[in-house]
């Protein structure tokens, strides 16, 4: 739409006058009777409404861009006239009015009349066409109007088509492109058209025109990707890495193969104590949790979490002394043997509780905390800083020799 400062009718006649919109002229075409006739020697159209009121639009000619001359201004039944609207040409209305006809796709919508024909047409704005001003008898305040069909702050999926918006002032239903316009802008402030397909935030503005004042704005967000379905490269869920571990570039890829983040900072990494170690480039032995989050203004949803371990010893390849599999012990011997278990990784003696734990499993009873008469399995298990396991089975415990 033309701004008021660009509207020749408003500038010349005041704020209550304006160039009619495409919607207003289309309303005349669709709801009035058009008769090609002469008035005071001028050919043109008499346009009569159902209530009998009428206006006359003379075929007043056009100033062409090549020589600036006024052509076809008066005379025979084939006289030509053109009337500007304040509606700029868009891909949407161009499709509506052109019907496949070759027309300029950039410019403004006009009404052309010629020899008993009339049609809406897209013309270059450098042409000199007539303006038939109209006035607004009631100036509605859009900021005080009731708007239905759109809710601010909603998140939608792509592609998203703006629903039908209804604007009412009291009992009066206002008309788009007569009382107000609806525009959509992206985060950069550029005007866009529906359907909205690009991830991001948009502002829908309903603004008064043609003497109507005020505006209302609504925000709409187009969802990005569901990070819970994404793949994280750089660390593997359940992966184990030798101490020290240098944190690689973290890459997040969607299920359809699109890379969302590469070498990103939109993640949180914590150790086994819940402490944030995101900024660490080198990790020591411990268990870690890495969570990918949508990040500020990314419009992606949900999150993705992987856990991995940086280890300094592998229990499965360690040497364990003090206990033997497939052996019978008295209760006292078994207790002593368990108490004297030694685990070594090469020349390093590992520390119980820090590097490994000892778990007891009794046949028919499962995990237990103390030895008793029966058959046991003893497991030397890793902790947060180690990996692997060593198992000693078929250990028989008796109450006496």
Give the structural class. Answer: mainly beta
How can the largest sheet be summarized? 5 strands, mixed
* Weakly predicted, low-confidence segments: none
Shape label: rod-shaped
Estimate percent helicity.
under 10%
Mean pLDDT: 86
Cα distance spanning the termini: 102 Å
Strand order of the largest sheet: 12-18-17-15-16
**C-alpha Rg (nearest Å):** 40 Å
Short descriptors:
five-stranded mixed sheet; Immunoglobulin-like; 401 residues; 8% helix; mainly beta; 42% strand; 4 domains
Structural notes for this entry:
The mean pLDDT is 86. The protein has 4 domains: 4-135, no CATH class; 142-222, Immunoglobulin-like (Sandwich); 227-311, Sandwich (Immunoglobulin-like); 314-398. Strands 12-18-17-15-16 form a 5-stranded mixed sheet, with no helix packed on it. It has a 5-stranded mixed sheet with strand order 30-37-35-33-34. 8% of the residues lie in helices and 42% in strands. The radius of gyration is 40 Å and the shape is rod-shaped. With 401 residues, the chain is mainly β. The chain is built from 4 helices and 37 strands.
Describe the structure concisely.
The protein is mostly beta strands. The protein is 8% helix and 42% strand. The protein is built from four helices and 37 strands.
């Amino acid at each position: 739409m033309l701004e008021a400062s660009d509207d020749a009718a408003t500038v010349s006649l005041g704020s209550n006058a304006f160039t009619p919109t495409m919607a207003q002229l289309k309303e005349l075409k669709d709801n009035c009777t058009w008769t090609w006739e002469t008035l005071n020697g001028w050919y043109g159209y008499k346009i009569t409404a159902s209530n009998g009121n009428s206006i006359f639009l003379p075929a007043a000619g056009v100033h062409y861009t090549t020589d600036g001359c006024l052509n076809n201004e008066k005379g025979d039944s084939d006289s030509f006239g053109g009337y500007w609207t304040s509606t700029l040409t868009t891909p949407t209305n161009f499709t509506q009015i052109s019907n496949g006809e070759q027309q300029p796709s950039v410019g403004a919508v006009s009404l052309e009349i010629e020899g008993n024909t009339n049609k809406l047409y897209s013309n270059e704005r450098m042409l000199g066409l007539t303006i038939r001003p109209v006035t607004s008898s009631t100036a509605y305040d859009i900021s005080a109007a009731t708007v239905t069909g759109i809710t601010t702050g909603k998140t939608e999926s792509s592609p998203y088509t703006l629903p039908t918006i209804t604007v009412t002032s009291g009992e009066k239903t206002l008309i788009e492109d007569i009382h107000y316009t609806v525009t959509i802008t992206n985060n950069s402030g550029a005007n866009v058209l529906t359907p909205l397909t690009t991830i991001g935030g948009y502002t829908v503005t309903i603004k008064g025109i043609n003497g109507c004042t005020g505006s209302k704005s609504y925000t709409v967000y187009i969802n990005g990707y569901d990070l819970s379905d994404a793949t994280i490269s750089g660390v593997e869920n359940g992966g184990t890495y030798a101490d020290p571990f240098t944190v690689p570039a973290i890459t997040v890829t969607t299920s359809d193969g699109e890379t969302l983040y590469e070498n990103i900072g939109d993640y949180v990494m914590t150790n086994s104590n819940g402490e944030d170690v995101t900024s660490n480039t080198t990790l020591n032995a411990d268990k870690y949790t890495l969570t990918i989050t949508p990040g500020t203004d990314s419009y992606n949803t949900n999150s993705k979490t992987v856990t991995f371990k940086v280890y300094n010893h592998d229990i499965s390849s360690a040497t364990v002394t003090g206990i033997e599999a497939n052996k019978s012990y008295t209760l006292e011997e078994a207790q002593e043997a368990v108490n004297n278990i030694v685990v070594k990784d090469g020349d390093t003696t590992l520390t119980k509780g820090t590097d490994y734990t000892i778990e007891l499993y009794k046949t028919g009873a499962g995990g237990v905390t103390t030895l008793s008469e029966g058959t046991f399995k003893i497991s030397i298990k890793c902790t947060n800083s180690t990996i692997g396991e060593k198992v000693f089975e078929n250990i028989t415990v008796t109450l006496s020799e």
